Amino acid sequence: MPNHHHHHRHHVTGNLPSPPKRSPKLLSIFLKFIVMSLILSLFLLFIGLAAIILLHLLLAGSFLHRRRRRLLSRSPAPRASTLSLPDIQNHLPPFAYSAAGESPSAADDCSICLEGFNEGEICRVIPVCDHVFHARCVDRWLTKVPNCPICRTRIRFGAGGASDSVDGDDEIKFLWAMGVGR
């Protein structure tokens, strides 16, 4: 009888279902899904960070632009007091350029047009700083910007010609260096 009982036990264990085997193909698809989800999450995270940084830069730039405009609206514009052509011609007398050294400056070329001075060419000298330019070049320049093209010294005409007064020059030079009025 014990033999029969043992046989019955063997028969019961033989009927139990074996644990389900996982398919390697299904596991591979599942791992690919997880890896792609992680990559997509990281990509979206970086896109979000880039968008936040870009938004910050745009807002900061807009703020600085508005601040600069506000500062400029409070300060006098450098072009507000340009010089008239008759004033320039009356207060800055022309002279004929001479390479022999009779010219007021040792410059060999005009800093406005970057062309060299030719013998007998009509030029003008700015008395405050002694810079020399072609008359046609400096006339055009000073009708737009009342400063020396080289050193940015402010040119003002008083009763006796171009004055040596440089009031407000620091502010003008600062605004010029910041790119204002270009």
From TrEMBL:
<protein>
    <recommendedName>
        <fullName>RING-type domain-containing protein</fullName>
    </recommendedName>
</protein>
<comment type="similarity">
    <text>Belongs to the RING-type zinc finger family. ATL subfamily.</text>
</comment>
<keyword id="KW-0863">Zinc-finger</keyword>
<keyword id="KW-0472">Membrane</keyword>
<dbReference type="InterPro" id="IPR013083">
    <property type="entry name" value="Znf_RING/FYVE/PHD"/>
</dbReference>
<dbReference type="Pfam" id="PF13639">
    <property type="entry name" value="zf-RING_2"/>
</dbReference>
<feature type="domain" description="RING-type">
    <location>
        <begin position="110"/>
        <end position="152"/>
    </location>
</feature>
<keyword id="KW-0479">Metal-binding</keyword>
<keyword id="KW-0862">Zinc</keyword>
<keyword id="KW-1133">Transmembrane helix</keyword>
<feature type="transmembrane region" description="Helical">
    <location>
        <begin position="29"/>
        <end position="60"/>
    </location>
</feature>
<dbReference type="GO" id="GO:0008270">
    <property type="term" value="F:zinc ion binding"/>
</dbReference>
<keyword id="KW-0812">Transmembrane</keyword>
<dbReference type="InterPro" id="IPR001841">
    <property type="entry name" value="Znf_RING"/>
</dbReference>
<dbReference type="GO" id="GO:0016020">
    <property type="term" value="C:membrane"/>
</dbReference>
